[in-house]
What does this fold into?
Amino acid sequence: MDELITRVVEVVILLYLVSTLMFLIRTVRGPTIFDRVLAVDALSYDLAVFMSLLALYLGEPLLAVSVVILTLWIYALDIIVSKYMEYEEVSI
It folds into this structure.
């Protein structure tokens, strides 16, 4: 059973790396600023999931704790970007 979990995590990590490449391409070539912001947002959450899978694969619980902090930081940046796009100013 442990071998099966290892293989599944390896395949999922490969899929996340492919999706990261697609998000990077959308970030660079996005036709509008909204597409680029959405691609960076998806890339950030993709990084959080990738770090979670890596923590599971390596058996490192401290890496999983840092994912929570990263996710909260990404959410805060989403709020700041949306406030800027709506009101053209940021007041925290």
